[in-house]
Amino acid sequence: MSLKKNIAGLTLGIKYDKNFRIPDVAGSMVEDILRDKNSPFSVKDMFPRIQESPREKILYNPKTTDYLRFNTDDIILGFSIKDNFEKTYKWLVGSVIKYYKDNLFKTYGIKNFRRVGIIFHHKIPHAHEFPSKIVKEITDNKISNAEDIFISFSKKLQSTEARYRKGVNDYKNTIYNIGNTEDALLADLDYQFYYEPGIEDLRNAFVERICADAESFLENFYSWLSKYETKRN
Prior knowledge:
This protein is of the alpha+beta class. It is built from four helices and nine strands. The N and C termini lie close together (11 Å).
């Protein structure tokens, strides 16, 4: 069975050239995000709290830990998932990104995009020994039953099949973060697409295609991660 059933949350981050106008219009942006009929976040009590500083605004829900943060450099949406990955991912791609492209970014002049990143957060029950085995290997079995382990590594992917436009230096990067708790393995896949040079209008940035490729790339992640889960089960 696919490890998608263990996806506990998603994070979507979009980075753009520094926009010093955002602090001046942040209040209006919050109103649109929470009130605009086209906004996927206008659902009652989705983000009941607002935290702010001179640099950024954070809309959040203390019960669910979901949040939407934006500032002069990027906008990041993070939210939890409970057994509804397919439906939630469809909402992310079909509603959130559409709202960004056709409404929010267009209205407030947010442009010149540099990166799109999607993080798939997994919580895999009863698989917490996996990082400990790695520690045993690199310490030649001198350390066993290690606690509070966190492992991070990345892989840059740059090939002709990864490019969506000609004559540019676009590339993909994947970051893997793995840690453990007392009863679970925490495994994150951070799939990033870099625009080199940047793209002025998000509507031309093929974000939906990037999201589709990110979901497909999960199978590469699962090809080795699932072996451990199968053994435990």
